[in-house]
Amino acid sequence: MHCPFNNKNCKKKNQKIFLDLGKLPRVDVLLSKQDLKKKETTKPLKIYFCKKCFLVQHPAYTDPKDIFVDDYIYYSSTVSSWVEHCQEFVNQSIKRFSLSQKSFVIEVASNDGYLLQNFVKKNIPCLGVEPSTGVIKEAKKKGVKTINDFYNLASSKKIIKSYPRADLIIANNVLAHIPNLKDFIESSLLLLKEDGVITVEVPHLLNLIKKKQFDTIYDEHYFYFSLTSLRNIFNYYGLEIFDVEELKTHGGSLRVFFKRKSFNKNKITKKINIVLNKERKNKLNLFSSYSNFRKKIDLIKKDSNNFLLKQKHKGKKIVAFGAAHKASTFLNYCKINESLISHVIDDTKIKIGKFMPVSRIPIVSAKFILKYKPDFVVILVWNLKNEVIKKLKYIKKWHGKFVVFIPKLKIY
């Protein structure tokens, strides 16, 4: 295989474009009132398919060093269902891999300690590697020891001098954010015990395509993985998949377990072929499967605008919930601004008082809903739909309704 999987991704001759989302802003930059006076920077977002390794990707035009800064806006602990998901994963991992006080666990992009706190409570030694200093302050409150750095060969060489090799390396929903996959894998091989395990969670490309989840495409996500592409990439560096789980998180994800090919401690499960066969059946290894994706998402764009315009003409009040990264892609690709959705509700304190990029819709707290009494709440974070509906069920008192647009328009 002639794919280097480095920061240049795959060779250009093997890449073919299947989606152009036009010019979009950085999703991690929310606007202040002062920013509203300035012109915003947008850049073209084109998505490619590699005919050699089947990796879906876009060129890295945003440097991770510009994203994961002191005031990085995503705090994992704000989503209760995600925290519960991670606690369950930790409990399963401790049992499955016989982790104890003699073990060592490393988490890549450990954020505010949302996951590692569960190992701390069990007195299992662990270490987080996290580049954003703001979230590390929260991690420390949870007793989670964290190195303030990017996870790469340079930081791994420092870690190996002071810490033991890891029994388990966890990389949940971070692999797509790392432009240099080669560096990630080589760093993990350096830090991993001979019989150690690497586990990653990634949104499943199959769901992105089948369920039209185009809003999960943005500048911070350099890659969109199938199990097929993950197998090709990790095999290249002497690692093999020994198990996979299909998860409901983030609109449908994969939890993939890797070990060194040379070590046979962990048996290879039948679930791998089940998922690979699903991907073959849906032809994720063929460019033709992606070619009409644009038509499908343009229909979502048309339906969402028609619905919002119709309700506005009736004098209805419409807000949205979730100032997430996916919300930025959705709003800006669909050309939705304050004239259609007056406010975006969010629970994260650091976001409140800011404005969504380009669409410039103001972000407010959930308290605003009780005062404003909207007729419709558009759930932009559709992956948390059930949680949002439960949280805001009080809008039914004034006959308020919930709306989602992905994968299709639905009113609750």
Overall domain count: 3
Order of helices and strands: EEEHHEHEHEHEHEHEHEEHHEHEEHEHEE
Instruction: State the helical fraction.
Output: 25-40%
Largest sheet: number of strands, sense, barrel closure: 7 strands, mixed
- Tell me, what is the CATH class of the largest domain? Alpha Beta
Task: Kindly report how far apart the N and C termini lie.
Answer: 49 Å
Number of helices: 13
**CATH homologous superfamily (4th level) name of the largest domain:** Vaccinia Virus protein VP39
Q: Helices and strands: which structural class?
A: alpha/beta
| Average residue-wise pLDDT | 91
Note the beta-strand portion: 15-25%
Number of strands: 17
Low-confidence stretches: 1-8
**The CATH topology of the largest domain:** Rossmann fold
Give, in spatial order, the strands making up the sheet with the most strands: 6-5-4-7-8-11-10
CATH-derived architecture of the largest domain: 3-Layer(aba) Sandwich
Q: Outline, from the CA principal axes?
A: globular
Gyration radius, rounded: 21 Å
Task: Give a verbal description of the structure.
This protein is of the alpha/beta class and 412 residues long. The protein has three domains: 12-57, no CATH class; 64-289, Rossmann fold; 293-411, 3-Layer(aba) Sandwich (Rossmann fold). It is 31% helix and 21% strand. It is built from 13 helices and 17 strands. The chain has helices spanning 64-67, 80-96, 117-121, 133-141, 153-162, 181-191, 205-210, 227-236, 271-281, 293-313, 325-333, 367-372, 385-391; strands spanning 15-24, 43-50, 56-57, 105-108, 126-130, 146-148, 166-172, 192-203, 223-224, 239-247, 253-260, 318-321, 344-345, 363-364, 376-379, 401-404, 410-411. It has a seven-stranded mixed sheet with strand order 6-5-4-7-8-11-10, sandwiched between helices. A hairpin with a 5-residue loop joins strand 16 (401-404) and strand 17 (410-411). Helix 5 (153-162) runs parallel beside helix 6. The radius of gyration is 21 Å and the shape is globular. It starts with 14 loop residues before the first strand and ends with a strand.
